[in-house]
Amino acid sequence: MAERVVLAMSGGVDSSAAAVLLHQQGYEVVGLFMRSGESESACAIPTTGLLPVVSGSGNRQGCCSSEDAADARRVADRLGIAFHSLNFQEEFRRIKDYFADEYLAGRTPNPCVQCNTWLKFGKLWEFAQQVDAGFIATGHYARIQHHADTDDWGLHCGSDSNKDQSYVLFGINRELLPNILLPIGTWEKPDIRELARDAGLRVAGKKDSYEICFVPDQDYAGFLKRYRNHESTAGEFVDMNGVVLGQHEGYEHFTIGQRKGLGLAFGEPRFVVHIDPQTRRVVLGHREDLAVAGILVDQVNWLSPKPEGELSCLVKVRYRQQSEPCRIVVNADDSVTVIPETPILGVAPGQAAVFYQDDRVLGGGWIQRRA
Protein backbone atom coordinates (compact mmCIF):
# COMPACT_ATOMS: atom_id res chain seq x y z
CA MET A 1 0.00 0.00 0.00
CA ALA A 2 1.29 3.47 -0.91
CA GLU A 3 2.41 5.70 1.93
CA ARG A 4 0.01 8.58 2.55
CA VAL A 5 1.23 12.21 2.62
CA VAL A 6 -0.75 15.40 3.25
CA LEU A 7 0.43 18.21 0.99
CA ALA A 8 -0.30 21.89 1.65
CA MET A 9 -1.65 23.16 -1.68
CA SER A 10 -2.03 26.88 -2.34
CA GLY A 11 -2.92 26.79 -6.02
CA GLY A 12 0.55 28.13 -6.86
CA VAL A 13 3.13 26.52 -9.09
CA ASP A 14 5.48 25.33 -6.33
CA SER A 15 2.98 23.32 -4.30
CA SER A 16 1.37 22.08 -7.52
CA ALA A 17 4.73 20.82 -8.79
CA ALA A 18 5.26 19.19 -5.40
CA ALA A 19 1.98 17.34 -5.92
CA VAL A 20 3.18 16.10 -9.32
CA LEU A 21 6.48 14.86 -7.91
CA LEU A 22 4.92 13.09 -4.93
CA HIS A 23 2.35 11.47 -7.22
CA GLN A 24 5.11 10.30 -9.56
CA GLN A 25 7.04 8.89 -6.60
CA GLY A 26 4.13 6.64 -5.70
CA TYR A 27 2.77 8.38 -2.61
CA GLU A 28 -0.94 8.54 -1.87
CA VAL A 29 -1.26 12.33 -1.87
CA VAL A 30 -3.96 14.17 0.07
CA GLY A 31 -4.10 17.86 -0.84
CA LEU A 32 -5.07 20.42 1.77
CA PHE A 33 -6.01 24.01 0.97
CA MET A 34 -5.90 26.24 4.05
CA ARG A 35 -8.67 28.85 4.00
CA SER A 36 -8.41 31.93 6.17
CA GLY A 37 -12.17 32.36 6.42
CA GLU A 38 -11.74 36.13 6.04
CA SER A 39 -11.59 38.54 3.13
CA GLU A 40 -8.13 39.65 4.26
CA SER A 41 -6.22 36.37 4.28
CA ALA A 42 -2.99 35.30 5.90
CA CYS A 43 -2.49 31.89 4.44
CA ALA A 44 0.57 32.16 2.30
CA ILE A 45 3.32 34.52 3.30
CA PRO A 46 6.17 35.57 0.98
CA THR A 47 9.02 33.09 0.89
CA THR A 48 7.07 30.16 2.26
CA GLY A 49 6.79 28.24 -0.98
CA LEU A 50 3.01 28.68 -0.99
CA LEU A 51 3.10 32.10 -2.56
CA PRO A 52 0.43 34.68 -3.35
CA VAL A 53 0.14 34.87 -7.10
CA VAL A 54 -1.21 36.85 -10.01
CA SER A 55 -2.84 34.53 -12.50
CA GLY A 56 -3.22 34.88 -16.20
CA SER A 57 -6.95 35.45 -15.81
CA GLY A 58 -6.48 38.87 -14.26
CA ASN A 59 -4.88 40.62 -11.32
CA ARG A 60 -6.08 40.14 -7.81
CA GLN A 61 -4.59 40.67 -4.40
CA GLY A 62 -3.89 38.38 -1.50
CA CYS A 63 -3.95 34.62 -1.46
CA CYS A 64 -6.16 31.78 -0.28
CA SER A 65 -8.87 33.23 -2.48
CA SER A 66 -11.60 31.26 -4.15
CA GLU A 67 -9.53 31.48 -7.32
CA ASP A 68 -6.56 29.89 -5.58
CA ALA A 69 -8.76 27.19 -4.11
CA ALA A 70 -10.16 26.45 -7.57
CA ASP A 71 -6.65 26.22 -9.03
CA ALA A 72 -5.54 23.84 -6.29
CA ARG A 73 -8.62 21.68 -6.80
CA ARG A 74 -8.02 21.55 -10.56
CA VAL A 75 -4.48 20.33 -9.95
CA ALA A 76 -5.76 17.66 -7.56
CA ASP A 77 -8.45 16.58 -10.03
CA ARG A 78 -5.96 16.34 -12.88
CA LEU A 79 -3.65 14.15 -10.80
CA GLY A 80 -6.51 12.14 -9.33
CA ILE A 81 -5.61 12.88 -5.72
CA ALA A 82 -7.86 13.58 -2.73
CA PHE A 83 -8.43 17.24 -1.89
CA HIS A 84 -9.72 19.07 1.17
CA SER A 85 -10.33 22.77 1.84
CA LEU A 86 -10.47 23.61 5.53
CA ASN A 87 -11.11 26.81 7.46
CA PHE A 88 -8.23 27.93 9.69
CA GLN A 89 -9.63 31.35 10.54
CA GLU A 90 -8.57 31.29 14.19
CA GLU A 91 -5.03 30.22 13.34
CA PHE A 92 -4.71 32.97 10.74
CA ARG A 93 -5.99 35.52 13.23
CA ARG A 94 -3.16 34.49 15.54
CA ILE A 95 -0.67 35.42 12.81
CA LYS A 96 -2.32 38.79 12.30
CA ASP A 97 -2.32 39.44 16.04
CA TYR A 98 1.38 38.65 16.19
CA PHE A 99 2.05 40.98 13.24
CA ALA A 100 0.13 43.85 14.81
CA ASP A 101 1.61 43.33 18.29
CA GLU A 102 5.18 43.37 16.99
CA TYR A 103 4.78 46.49 14.86
CA LEU A 104 3.08 48.40 17.66
CA ALA A 105 5.93 47.35 19.97
CA GLY A 106 8.39 48.99 17.59
CA ARG A 107 9.71 45.68 16.28
CA THR A 108 9.88 44.22 12.76
CA PRO A 109 7.76 41.04 12.59
CA ASN A 110 8.30 38.03 10.35
CA PRO A 111 4.84 36.51 9.83
CA CYS A 112 6.29 34.11 7.25
CA VAL A 113 8.21 32.20 9.92
CA GLN A 114 5.25 32.09 12.27
CA CYS A 115 2.92 30.91 9.53
CA ASN A 116 5.26 28.01 8.83
CA THR A 117 5.78 27.14 12.49
CA TRP A 118 2.19 27.43 13.68
CA LEU A 119 0.25 26.49 10.58
CA LYS A 120 2.05 24.74 7.74
CA PHE A 121 4.08 22.45 9.98
CA GLY A 122 1.77 22.59 12.99
CA LYS A 123 -1.86 22.28 11.98
CA LEU A 124 -0.82 20.43 8.82
CA TRP A 125 0.70 17.65 10.94
CA GLU A 126 -2.38 17.54 13.17
CA PHE A 127 -4.55 17.03 10.09
CA ALA A 128 -2.19 14.37 8.77
CA GLN A 129 -2.57 12.38 11.97
CA GLN A 130 -6.36 12.59 11.65
CA VAL A 131 -6.23 10.99 8.19
CA ASP A 132 -3.57 8.41 9.12
CA ALA A 133 -0.85 9.98 6.99
CA GLY A 134 2.77 9.35 7.90
CA PHE A 135 4.12 12.44 6.14
CA ILE A 136 3.39 16.08 5.46
CA ALA A 137 4.77 18.03 2.51
CA THR A 138 4.98 21.60 1.20
CA GLY A 139 6.40 23.41 -1.79
CA HIS A 140 9.40 24.94 -0.03
CA TYR A 141 12.82 25.27 -1.60
CA ALA A 142 14.72 23.46 1.13
CA ARG A 143 15.93 19.92 1.76
CA ILE A 144 15.70 17.43 4.61
CA GLN A 145 18.46 14.86 4.86
CA HIS A 146 19.17 11.86 7.03
CA HIS A 147 22.69 11.83 8.48
CA ALA A 148 23.73 8.21 8.76
CA ASP A 149 26.84 8.92 10.84
CA THR A 150 24.80 10.46 13.65
CA ASP A 151 21.46 8.83 12.78
CA ASP A 152 19.63 12.14 12.87
CA TRP A 153 17.78 14.35 10.42
CA GLY A 154 18.73 17.83 9.30
CA LEU A 155 17.23 20.77 7.44
CA HIS A 156 19.41 22.03 4.59
CA CYS A 157 19.32 24.88 2.08
CA GLY A 158 17.50 24.36 -1.18
CA SER A 159 19.59 23.56 -4.25
CA ASP A 160 18.44 26.77 -5.96
CA SER A 161 20.32 29.43 -3.99
CA ASN A 162 18.11 32.16 -5.45
CA LYS A 163 14.97 30.51 -4.05
CA ASP A 164 16.31 28.89 -0.86
CA GLN A 165 13.70 29.14 1.91
CA SER A 166 15.47 27.37 4.75
CA TYR A 167 15.64 30.66 6.69
CA VAL A 168 11.88 30.73 7.24
CA LEU A 169 11.71 27.10 8.37
CA PHE A 170 13.93 27.28 11.46
CA GLY A 171 10.90 27.06 13.77
CA ILE A 172 9.91 23.54 12.69
CA ASN A 173 9.71 20.98 15.48
CA ARG A 174 12.90 18.95 15.15
CA GLU A 175 11.05 15.73 15.94
CA LEU A 176 8.94 16.24 12.79
CA LEU A 177 11.87 16.28 10.37
CA PRO A 178 11.65 12.54 9.52
CA ASN A 179 7.97 13.05 8.64
CA ILE A 180 8.42 16.03 6.32
CA LEU A 181 8.85 15.82 2.55
CA LEU A 182 10.09 18.81 0.53
CA PRO A 183 9.97 17.41 -3.01
CA ILE A 184 11.04 20.57 -4.89
CA GLY A 185 14.02 21.32 -2.67
CA THR A 186 16.52 19.84 -5.12
CA TRP A 187 15.02 21.66 -8.13
CA GLU A 188 15.69 24.99 -9.81
CA LYS A 189 12.68 27.30 -10.19
CA PRO A 190 12.69 27.33 -14.03
CA ASP A 191 12.66 23.54 -14.02
CA ILE A 192 9.71 23.53 -11.64
CA ARG A 193 7.71 25.68 -14.07
CA GLU A 194 8.67 23.35 -16.92
CA LEU A 195 7.61 20.34 -14.86
CA ALA A 196 4.23 21.96 -14.26
CA ARG A 197 3.82 22.74 -17.95
CA ASP A 198 4.72 19.18 -18.91
CA ALA A 199 2.08 17.95 -16.47
CA GLY A 200 -0.51 20.14 -18.18
CA LEU A 201 -1.05 22.40 -15.18
CA ARG A 202 -2.31 25.86 -16.04
CA VAL A 203 -0.69 27.26 -12.88
CA ALA A 204 2.72 26.81 -14.51
CA GLY A 205 2.70 30.46 -15.53
CA LYS A 206 1.50 31.95 -12.25
CA LYS A 207 3.71 34.76 -11.04
CA ASP A 208 5.24 34.87 -7.58
CA SER A 209 4.40 37.75 -5.28
CA TYR A 210 6.55 39.04 -2.46
CA GLU A 211 4.16 41.17 -0.44
CA ILE A 212 2.71 40.11 2.87
CA CYS A 213 -0.49 38.55 1.65
CA PHE A 214 -2.85 40.06 4.20
CA VAL A 215 -1.34 43.47 3.43
CA PRO A 216 -1.22 43.17 -0.38
CA ASP A 217 -0.91 46.92 -0.87
CA GLN A 218 2.01 46.98 1.62
CA ASP A 219 0.23 49.68 3.62
CA TYR A 220 1.16 48.27 7.03
CA ALA A 221 -0.01 51.38 8.85
CA GLY A 222 -3.39 51.18 7.14
CA PHE A 223 -3.75 47.51 8.03
CA LEU A 224 -2.86 48.19 11.67
CA LYS A 225 -5.36 51.05 11.86
CA ARG A 226 -8.13 48.88 10.44
CA TYR A 227 -7.19 45.81 12.45
CA ARG A 228 -6.48 47.41 15.82
CA ASN A 229 -7.98 50.89 15.54
CA HIS A 230 -5.09 52.06 17.70
CA GLU A 231 -4.54 55.62 18.87
CA SER A 232 -2.14 57.96 17.11
CA THR A 233 1.47 56.77 16.98
CA ALA A 234 2.76 60.02 15.46
CA GLY A 235 5.91 61.45 16.99
CA GLU A 236 9.33 62.93 16.36
CA PHE A 237 12.33 62.08 14.27
CA VAL A 238 15.48 62.62 16.33
CA ASP A 239 19.17 62.18 15.67
CA MET A 240 21.55 60.03 17.67
CA ASN A 241 21.90 62.82 20.23
CA GLY A 242 18.16 63.30 20.68
CA VAL A 243 17.96 66.49 18.62
CA VAL A 244 14.54 66.79 16.97
CA LEU A 245 14.77 66.64 13.17
CA GLY A 246 11.10 66.63 12.24
CA GLN A 247 7.76 64.90 12.70
CA HIS A 248 6.43 61.53 11.51
CA GLU A 249 2.86 60.26 11.16
CA GLY A 250 3.41 56.98 13.02
CA TYR A 251 6.40 54.86 14.04
CA GLU A 252 4.81 51.73 12.53
CA HIS A 253 5.68 53.17 9.10
CA PHE A 254 9.35 52.41 9.73
CA THR A 255 11.77 49.57 10.29
CA ILE A 256 15.44 49.41 11.27
CA GLY A 257 17.74 50.15 8.35
CA GLN A 258 15.09 52.00 6.33
CA ARG A 259 16.38 54.90 4.23
CA LYS A 260 13.63 55.67 1.73
CA GLY A 261 10.22 57.05 2.54
CA LEU A 262 11.25 59.09 5.59
CA GLY A 263 9.56 62.22 4.25
CA LEU A 264 12.52 64.42 5.18
CA ALA A 265 15.42 65.78 3.14
CA PHE A 266 18.84 65.97 4.76
CA GLY A 267 21.24 66.36 1.84
CA GLU A 268 22.83 63.05 2.87
CA PRO A 269 21.47 59.54 3.49
CA ARG A 270 19.87 58.98 6.88
CA PHE A 271 18.72 55.59 8.18
CA VAL A 272 16.31 54.41 10.86
CA VAL A 273 18.55 53.20 13.70
CA HIS A 274 16.07 52.76 16.55
CA ILE A 275 12.31 52.91 17.20
CA ASP A 276 11.02 53.75 20.67
CA PRO A 277 7.28 52.98 20.97
CA GLN A 278 7.12 54.52 24.45
CA THR A 279 8.19 57.99 23.34
CA ARG A 280 7.07 57.39 19.72
CA ARG A 281 10.48 58.63 18.60
CA VAL A 282 12.21 57.32 15.50
CA VAL A 283 15.98 57.70 15.76
CA LEU A 284 17.84 58.49 12.54
CA GLY A 285 21.56 58.04 12.00
CA HIS A 286 24.19 57.41 9.37
CA ARG A 287 25.06 54.10 7.75
CA GLU A 288 27.83 53.38 10.24
CA ASP A 289 25.34 53.76 13.11
CA LEU A 290 23.56 50.64 11.85
CA ALA A 291 26.63 48.45 12.42
CA VAL A 292 26.02 45.85 15.14
CA ALA A 293 28.91 43.93 16.70
CA GLY A 294 26.78 41.67 18.89
CA ILE A 295 23.19 40.37 18.86
CA LEU A 296 21.09 38.82 21.61
CA VAL A 297 18.73 36.11 20.31
CA ASP A 298 16.11 34.29 22.37
CA GLN A 299 13.37 31.66 21.90
CA VAL A 300 15.93 29.60 20.01
CA ASN A 301 14.74 26.45 18.27
CA TRP A 302 17.51 23.94 17.55
CA LEU A 303 17.23 21.67 14.52
CA SER A 304 20.54 20.01 15.40
CA PRO A 305 22.04 19.13 18.78
CA LYS A 306 22.27 22.27 20.92
CA PRO A 307 25.92 23.35 21.07
CA GLU A 308 27.70 23.64 24.37
CA GLY A 309 29.63 26.83 24.97
CA GLU A 310 30.90 28.58 21.87
CA LEU A 311 30.53 27.60 18.21
CA SER A 312 31.76 29.08 14.94
CA CYS A 313 29.11 29.10 12.24
CA LEU A 314 27.20 31.39 9.87
CA VAL A 315 24.27 33.64 10.74
CA LYS A 316 21.58 35.19 8.56
CA VAL A 317 19.53 38.03 10.03
CA ARG A 318 17.26 38.78 7.05
CA TYR A 319 15.77 36.46 4.47
CA ARG A 320 17.37 38.19 1.49
CA GLN A 321 20.72 38.95 3.15
CA GLN A 322 23.85 36.88 2.83
CA SER A 323 24.88 34.73 5.78
CA GLU A 324 27.81 36.08 7.78
CA PRO A 325 30.61 34.25 9.66
CA CYS A 326 30.16 34.53 13.40
CA ARG A 327 30.64 32.95 16.80
CA ILE A 328 27.61 32.04 18.88
CA VAL A 329 27.56 31.53 22.63
CA VAL A 330 24.69 29.70 24.33
CA ASN A 331 23.88 31.53 27.55
CA ALA A 332 22.68 30.06 30.84
CA ASP A 333 19.07 31.07 30.06
CA ASP A 334 19.29 29.34 26.63
CA SER A 335 19.44 32.65 24.79
CA VAL A 336 22.26 33.03 22.29
CA THR A 337 24.79 35.83 21.89
CA VAL A 338 25.93 36.25 18.30
CA ILE A 339 29.33 37.84 17.65
CA PRO A 340 29.83 38.39 13.89
CA GLU A 341 33.35 38.52 12.45
CA THR A 342 32.52 41.95 11.08
CA PRO A 343 29.65 44.17 12.25
CA ILE A 344 26.31 43.51 10.54
CA LEU A 345 24.20 46.39 9.25
CA GLY A 346 20.50 46.84 9.87
CA VAL A 347 19.83 44.25 12.55
CA ALA A 348 16.14 44.63 13.43
CA PRO A 349 14.60 43.40 16.70
CA GLY A 350 11.74 41.04 15.87
CA GLN A 351 13.45 39.51 12.86
CA ALA A 352 14.91 35.99 12.90
CA ALA A 353 18.57 35.10 13.29
CA VAL A 354 19.22 31.69 11.74
CA PHE A 355 22.43 29.73 12.25
CA TYR A 356 24.05 27.57 9.57
CA GLN A 357 26.90 25.08 9.38
CA ASP A 358 27.72 25.00 5.67
CA ASP A 359 24.25 24.44 4.17
CA ARG A 360 22.66 22.87 7.24
CA VAL A 361 20.33 24.85 9.49
CA LEU A 362 21.53 24.48 13.07
CA GLY A 363 18.64 26.47 14.49
CA GLY A 364 17.41 29.99 14.92
CA GLY A 365 15.63 32.42 17.17
CA TRP A 366 14.30 35.96 17.49
CA ILE A 367 16.49 39.03 17.61
CA GLN A 368 15.91 40.96 20.84
CA ARG A 369 18.53 43.70 20.83
CA ARG A 370 22.18 44.56 20.39
CA ALA A 371 24.41 42.61 22.77
Topology (SSEs and partners):
Layout: E1 4-8, H1 13-24, E2 28-35, E3 53-54, H2 66-79, E4 82-87, H3 89-104, H4 111-130, E5 135-137, E6 142-147, E7 152-157, E8 180-181, H5 189-198, E9 207-208, H6 220-228, E10 235-238, E11 244-248, E12 271-276, E13 281-285, E14 291-292, E15 295-302, E16 310-316, E17 324-330, E18 336-340, E19 344-345, E20 352-357, E21 360-370
Parallel strand pairs: 1-2, 1-5, 2-4, 5-8, 10-13
Antiparallel strand pairs: 3-9, 6-7, 7-21, 10-11, 12-13, 14-19, 15-18, 15-21, 16-17, 16-20, 17-18, 20-21
Overall shape: globular
Largest sheet: 6 strands, antiparallel, barrel
Structural class label: alpha+beta
Euclidean distance between termini CA atoms: 54 Å
Q: What would you report as the Rg, rounded to the nearest angstrom?
A: 21 Å
The portion of residues forming beta strands comes to 25-35%
- DSSP helix fraction: 10-25%
> For the residues shown, what is the average pLDDT?
90
Number of helices: 6
| Biggest β-sheet: strands ordered side by side in the sheet | 15-18-17-16-20-21
